[in-house]
Design a protein that fits this description.
The chain is about 45% helix and about 15% strand. The chain contains 46 helices and 35 strands. Residues about 1-10, about 735-810 and about 1160-1298 have low confidence and may be disordered. It comes from Drosophila madeirensis (Fruit fly).
Length: about 1300
């Protein structure tokens, strides 16, 4: 009874469509092609928009206050005080929302009213897109948008091919080829035949997978497999094809485009989250104050107020029979009254001001000429206005490599064919490769009529091999010319290629220049021209590339021979090679390592000759798998695995992807700012490591580069445990890590310091027992001796307790392979992985998938609670960009998908430096300063009512004129604080880039936090107390010189209000560091504006306080009171400011002082990063080193190859300079042989480093003394490293075995 019938199950799991049969399709109630992205209509806008706005807590809070103010019994303020700002905010937001929705309406209307030629009753008619139905057959012309997701039936091209551009869908501008079924090609453009087409389509239900479609066409009693290659998606544009016909499969909201247009994840800044927390705290504070005053009012009314009912009668709703009850009711009403009076402590203008500041800051980013890229005419673009200050708090940057750090412009650079490498130009005299420069003459390809003038190749031997008909080179280039998905077209008589990736285009172009020209393709054939002769191949199958397979193959037939050509990643192809090629594989592997070490992108080429019978059997099984409705992908992969085996190695290609301009400098400065940079790339390990060195993400100053490449959880865990021990050892024995061993008195003689330090490591009878020499840190070899030697890492060398503080910028880097990253992200290992990764200066993850990129970002966000930024340029970076707090897209070679998903868009990676260190830091600095001042001025204003309540029986009577309360934030103080938030800067943009450590306060949230907020509140409370008490003391019982009584409420309110405005002007003048014309106009103009508006309101409109201020300012008492009050308020601020400037100056203070003194010489290393003198050369630790087979590393690191035992090394851990080592050798009582050996070694190294040491006249041990440690503590400083040998202190760790 409960089981479903088979048709019911089919209906739920699949979609059934019949072409040209409207009645059949209507029964399934499929969506039509009408789309609606707008939110409102004319009638629903007002209620829906107000409902949406009042879902925001702040707006709802002020709405409740407005309702309370409408109750006369509890409101001492007119409702206007809340109504005006609330209505203003709601109106502004509604106008913005209405404008946005009108734009959506216009866009929807434009799309829905596009014309599409639809087949109706055997004739083509022009129908609107919104009228297109599922099952309709429609016609597309060249350069026309696809109206819905359609199954391609027939095209103008002879073999059913058509070309589309998917820029609107995925950002890719490369043309993609689609091909219809060969059985439907015969329909042509015959309307009768197309109208009579009654094929039934069974397919998957609507989903958002752009690259996947599974379906079956039933027509003429036959079933045909349908895949993504036969589907045109809505939003694509037909290119280079005259016309095509298709039947609508998905329409409207069911199309893949609309399925992918979900809401973007909401992002908020750390300042926003802190602000929300603070607002909740303020509201709780407000409730507490109101409750306290309510109790005070009830007590006052019960004991005192009841006797004054003749003068202050109780409201008629107050019970007068029983005094305690009446007093309690009055206290309850006063609670709400004070909630209204004190509501300005959280003014609604705060939210408006924050949004205005962010909006204008976004335009400052957009208008920055320094981030304009002339080559592509691209400016930086802030695509959101809500995250600007978050740019000033970035702790982790996750970057793609290809197209982000590199240019993604590929050039065929080198290759290996049959075990021989090509591409290097060899000097015949020395036998060494010559560096390729522009001055070097390139090979002339002009004899080839199809050559490209911009193609550069310098090794003549390869061209000679091709022209001499060398077999292996011909197979190599024939494979490149045939194994691809490139499309060829002739434009103005010139052959041009359209490729899906720049790598593929570079390989086909290389084959073309060497005489193997890809000419054309059809669905069943590929034509190439080899040395002027045409060769046509029957195309049997294309086994396309994807991120899982990491390879692509084509199966071709020419004559009686069938061949499979394959290209892909080296580890994938090598696993599928025929045995018996060990020598060739070994030589080619050496070439692969060499190419990867030079930062080149490599592909391995292979072929397999097939018999006709084997291929027919395989083809039958492949077709069965392709028609399977269940697990089709898995079955096809198994079939592909079968035929892509036992292949013969052909060679290797090496393509160069050059670094973008300015990348090394940008990365160095960002690291100096305290930001950790992770590179997440799909490239192989060696290539990624070498690019890391090229862009100075990895440097030779690093103590070690850890490589996690385990294939199982146990292997990865073991490696992580070893790396953690290595870091512990480094932090224990590094320079400055053994401070507890010797006196830190700065007056201590350097020699005694040296002897104290030396005695710890030398085996002398007088020295206390010491542990054995510490293990080293080595990439090559590890052992488990760490656990035995250093079981208690908290025990100092001399037995005392010394806690080890691991520096966040410790000298390590981590490289993780994709298969190992899977285990690192598992719950049991992610904590260990994170512990090590967070102590490394740089992390590189290789061979990672887009999903893994997002998982890494989510891990850091969750576990470290850090602010993250992801930057990339391709569709594979979108998940990472959306996962991070800030997403930055680069307008690169891989389309605009990353930009479309990003929060900020820039043209080059180097602009990220300016985006963060200048605009990000300024935005954070400005927002924090704005918030501190805003809370100060509002607490100073609002708390005056609290002090006055002590003198008015807690009656909720206000000090100020109600109109003053209404417009205080809107007219009197809004513009100066807005100018502060928009234009303020402590140092110039040049200094922000020159001193990257200025960025550090943002990393620690030092400029606005709970402590700073409390300081602003206390400052505001002190200001309000002084503001009220001094005028109250002066005007209480006061009489003017003309005999007028001054002690009236209105005069006091007018005087306090005026002094408050003057104090606000003085305070913001002290707050402002960078004065512009706008600052002057807004600050001084607001002061003048106060007097103008006060006069206008009281005299023109007729306010209740008319004449109060006018009479007060006529008396000298007012001016003296104002002067004294302002001086009392300003003096402490000035004193504290100058105290900080003189005693505890910040880095920005020092820079400003130097700028004022016009001090233009290079800054000292304690405030500025000095690039390493060794960065100019290519690192010797390239990817090539990591790819080598194991050599003498184990023998060297174990000490077995040395003449001395490890414990006899004078300097086992590199704890100082070569001078220190020489001093140790002089002090050591070793035999003469050892001394000579050590002395010779020292001498050679000292000659090498003489240029680093010639200016150092003090003892090298000063680097370990208190003064020296100051230099070492400064990140990026060179003062502590110029003295050292190239391997000390960090690199000497490599000489000791774990």
């Amino acid at each position: 009874m409960g089981t479903k019938t088979q048709p019911q199950q089919a209906k739920e799991n699949e979609r059934r469509i019949r072409a040209n049969d409207k009645e059949f399709n209507l029964q399934y109630k499929y969506h039509n092609n009408y789309i609606k992205t707008s939110k409102y209509s004319v009638f629903t806008f007002l209620p829906f928009n107000l409902l949406e706005q009042f879902q925001r807590l702040a707006n709802f809070y002020f709405l409740c206050l407005l309702v309370l103010q409408l109750i006369p019994a509890i409101s001492s303020l007119t409702p206007v005080t809340t109504a005006i700002p609330l209505i203003g905010v709601l109106t502004l937001t509604a106008v913005k929302d209405a404008y946005d929705d009108i734009q959506r309406h216009l866009s929807d209307s434009q799309v829905n009213n596009r014309k599409s030629k639809t087949l109706r009753n055997g004739k083509l008619v022009d129908a609107k897109w919104s009228e297109v139905q599922v099952g309709d057959v429609i016609r597309l012309d060249n350069n026309q948008f696809v109206a819905a997701d359609i199954l391609l039936l027939t095209t103008s091209e002879p073999n059913g091919l058509c070309f589309i551009e998917t820029a609107e869908l995925d950002g890719e501008t490369n043309l993609k080829a689609k091909q219809c079924l060969t059985e439907t090609i015969e329909l042509g453009d015959h309307h009768d035949a197309l109208w009579n087409f009654n094929g039934e389509i069974l397919c998957e239900r609507p989903n958002n997978l752009l690259n996947k479609f599974d379906g079956t066409l039933i027509w003429r009693n036959q079933r045909f497999a349908l895949d993504n290659e036969k589907i045109l998606l809505r939003g694509c544009v037909l290119r280079n094809t005259q016309w095509c016909y298709g039947v609508v499969v998905f329409a409207g909201v069911d199309t893949k485009l609309m399925q992918n247009s979900g809401k973007t994840q909401f992002k908020s800044t750390g300042v926003d989250r802190l602000l929300n927390f603070i607002i909740i705290g303020i509201v709780l504070f407000l409730v507490s104050i109101c409750a306290l005053f309510a109790v005070g009012c009830a007590i006052w009314e019960g004991f005192i107020g009841q006797h004054f009912q003749v003068y202050l009668p109780w409201e008629h709703i107050i019970p007068k029979d029983y005094i305690p009850t009446g007093a309690t009711v009055i206290g309850l009403l006063v609670f709400f009254s004070y909630a209204i009076v004190l509501n300005t402590v959280v003014p609604i203008s705060l939210y408006v001001s924050v949004e205005v500041i962010r909006f204008i800051q976004s335009f400052l980013i957009n208008w920055d000429e320094e981030m304009y890229y002339a080559r592509t005419n691209t400016y930086a673009k802030a695509r959101t206005t809500t995250l600007n200050e978050e740019l000033g708090q970035i702790q982790y940057i996750f970057s793609d490599k290809t197209g982000t750090l590199t240019q993604n412009i590929m050039t065929f650079n080198k290759c290996s064919i049959n075990g021989r490498t090509y591409g290097d130009v060899i000097d015949l005299r020395t036998g060494e490769p010559i560096e390729v420069t522009e001055a070097l003459q390139c090979v002339d390809f002009s004899a080839n009529p199809h050559h490209e003038s911009d193609f550069r190749w310098y090794d003549r031997t390869l061209l000679d091999a091709v022209r001499s008909d060398e077999e292996h080179s011909h197979v190599f280039f024939r494979l490149l010319a045939l194994c691809h998905t490139v499309m060829a077209e002739t434009v103005e008589g010139k052959l041009e290629y359209q490729a899906q990736s720049p790598d593929e285009a570079a390989l086909v172009a290389a084959a073309r220049n060497f005489g193997f020209v890809f000419r054309s393709r059809t669905p069943n054939s590929i034509t190439i021209e080899v040395m002027g002769r045409l060769e046509e191949y029957e195309l049997l199958n294309i086994l396309d590339f994807n991120n899982v397979r990491k390879r692509m193959s084509v199966i071709l037939r020419r004559g009686d021979s069938v061949v499979l050509y394959c290209k892909g990643a080296d580890n994938v192809i090598y696993d599928r090679l025929h045995s018996g090629q060990e020598d060739l594989k070994a030589r080619t592997q050496d070439h692969l390592n060499k190419f990867a070490g030079e930062g080149l992108r490599t592909l391995v080429l292979a072929e397999r000759r097939l018999t006709e019978q084997y291929y027919k059997d395989w083809r039958t099984r492949q077709q069965e798998a392709a028609l399977a409705m269940d697990s089709r992908e898995e079955k096809l992969n198994e079939i592909y695995e079968e035929i892509e085996s036992d292949m013969q190695l052909v060679g290797v290609t090496a393509i160069e992807d050059k670094l973008q301009d300015g990348v090394p400098k940008a990365i160095a400065n960002l690291q100096s700012a305290g930001i950790k940079i992770w590179v997440l790339t799909g490239d192989k390990q060696e290539t990624a490591i070498n690019i890391g060195y090229s862009c100075q993400l990895l440097t030779d100053e690093l103590a070690d580069v850890f490589i996690v490449d385990g294939n199982s959880v146990e292997e990865v865990e073991k490696q992580l445990r070893q790396f953690k021990e290595s870091i512990k050892i480094y932090n224990r024995f590094r320079p400055g890590g053994t401070e507890a061993l010797y006196n830190s008195d700065s007056n201590m003689d350097p020699l005694s310091v040296t002897m104290t330090q030396t005695s710890v490591f030398m085996h002398e009878s007088s020295a206390p027992p010491t542990p054995p020499p510490p293990p080293a840190i080595s990439v090559v070899t590890f052992s488990a001796e760490c656990n035995d030697l250093f079981g208690d890492e908290k025990r100092s060398l001399d037995g005392g307790a010394a806690s080890i503080v691991i520096d966040e910028t410790t000298g390590f880097a981590l490289v993780v392979n994709g298969h190992s990253l899977v285990h690192c992200l598992s719950p049991e290992l992610e904590i260990k992985f994170l512990d090590i990764a967070s102590q490394c200066k740089a992390v590189i993850c290789c061979r990672v998938t887009p999903l893994q990129k997002a998982l890494v970002v989510e891990l850091i966000k969750r576990a470290k609670n850090a602010v993250t930024l992801a930057i990339g340029d391709g569709a594979n970076d979108v998940s990472m960009i959306k996962a991070a707090h800030i997403g930055v897209g680069i307008s690169g070679q891989e389309g605009l998908q990353a930009v479309l998903s990003s929060d900020y868009a820039i043209a080059q990676f180097r602009y990220l430096e300016r985006l963060l260190l200048v605009h990000g830091r300024w935005s954070y600095y400005r927002m924090c300063k704005f918030l501190r001042y805003f809370f100060y001025k509002n607490f100073a204003f609002t708390l005056c009512h609290c002090w006055y309540s002590l003198f008015c029986g807690f009656s909720a009577q206000t000090v100020f004129d109600p109109m003053f309360i209404s417009v205080y934030n809107l007219f009197y103080t809004s513009l100066p604080v807005l100018s502060l938030g928009i234009f303020e800067q402590d140092v110039s943009d040049k200094n922000s880039l020159e001193y990257p450590r200025l960025y550090t306060p943002g990393l620690k949230s030092e400029l606005f936090n709970i402590r700073e907020f409390i300081y602003s509140v206390l400052h505001g409370a002190f200001t309000s107390l002084v503001l009220f008490l001094i005028p109250y003391g002066v005007y209480k019982d006061g009489v003017s010189q003309h005999g007028y009584i001054l002690s009236d409420h209105m005069t006091l309110g007018a005087v306090v209000a005026t002094i408050l405005i003057v104090d606000n002007t003085a305070q913001i003048s002290l707050y402002t560091s960078y004065w512009t014309v706008v600052n002057h106009i807004t600050i001084w103009g607001s002061l003048v504006w106060y007097f103008v508006l006060d006069y206008f309101y009281n005299y023109v409109i007729g306010g209740p306080y008319v004449g109060s201020l006018t009479q007060a300012i006529k008396d000298l008492t007012f001016w003296m009171t104002m002067l004294i009050t302002v001086m009392v308020l300003v003096a402490p601020v000035l004193a504290y400011k100058y105290y900080l400037l003189d005693v505890h100056p910040s880095l920005s203070d020092k820079i400003r002082q130097k700028s004022l003194k016009k001090f233009h010489s290079r800054a000292s290393s304690d405030v500025r990063r000095t690039p390493s003198s060794r960065r100019g050369r290519r690192s010797v630790r390239s990817g090539y080193a990591f790819a080598h087979q194991e050599g003498f590393g184990r023998l060297i690191t174990s000490g077995k190859i040395m003449h001395k035992k490890p414990q006899d090394f004078a300097f086992p851990l590199g704890l100082g300079t070569k001078k220190t080592q020489a001093l140790h050798n002089n002090l050591a009582s070793a035999d003469q042989t050892k001394t000579n050996s050590s002395g010779n070694h020292m001498g050679n190294n000292n000659n090498t480093n003489q240029r680093h040491n010639q200016n150092q006249n003090h003892s090298s041990m000063a680097d370990i003394s208190v003064e020296g440690r100051v230099h070492e503590a400064d990140a990026g400083g060179s003062g502590g490293t110029e003295d050292m040998s190239p391997r000390a202190p960090c690199q000497d760790l490599d000489t000791i075995n774990l």
